[in-house]
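Protein in question passed on here:
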Amino acid sequence: MNSVRRPLLAVLVAAASMAGCSQQSDQPSAAEQAQTAAAQTQADAAKKLDTYRQLVQQNNDEMTVLMGKDIVERFPNTDAAKEVQQSLPGIEQRFKDNREKARVQALWIYQVSPMQGGTQSTATIYTSQPSGNDRVRLVLRRHTEWGQNVFLFGSGHGFICKGNCTINATVDGKPTGIKGFAPTTGEPAIMIRDDKAFIAMLEKAKKITMDVTTKDDDKKQTLVYEVGGFDASKWQPVGKGKKK
C-alpha cells in the first residue's frame, strides 16, 4: 500500500511545483511593472499637455497656470513637464501683471453727474492706507462752472492747513512737496494749488503718499494712494457753462 502511495504523492508534488512555476512565469517582473507604470505616467501627462496647449491658444492665462503647475508637480520627469516649463514662467508672470493691473484700475471710480446748477465729472480714488472709516478720497474734478480742481476729502472736521500749506509727499518713493490750501467754505478737504501739475505727475506715477494732520485729534496720517490704474480717457470733459 505504501509503495503505491509514494509514486502518487511524487506525481502530485511535481504537478504542484509545475503549476507554481507556471503562475510565477505569467506575472510581470518588477522591471516590466516599472516600465508599464512609466508608460502610463507619460500617457496621462500627454493628455494633460493637450489641455494645456488648448488653454494657451485660448489665452486663458489663469487656467493655463493652474494646469501647468499641476503637470510639473504631478509628472515632474515627463516630456510634458519639460515642455510646460519652457512657457509657464512667462505666462505666469503675464497673468500676475494683468491681475495687478486690473486691481489698481478697479480702485478708481469715474462719474458724471449734475452738481449745483452744472455738470461735474470726477475721478476718485480712496486711500489704500488708512482703510475703513479713516479712508480719505483723492478727487479729480471738472465742473462746467468751477473748472478743474483736485482735492483731498476726508471725514470729521478735515485737516490742518493754514493758508497755503505744503504737504510732504512721495511719488514712487521720491520725496516732493505739494502745495495746498483749505477751502473757505469749511469742507473737510485740502485743495491742491496746482492741479495741472499734480495731474501730470499722477499720470506717470504708481504710488503717491501724502502726510496730513487731522483737525479732530491732531493726528498725523500718511495717506497712501495706488494711482497706477488711472485712465484719463474715462475722466470725461464737461465743457464750460453758458455765460449769464
Remarks:
- The helical segments are 2-26, 30-57, 61-74, 79-105, 195-204.
- The beta strands are 108-115, 118-126, 137-143, 147-153, 164-171, 174-181, 189-192, 207-213, 220-226.
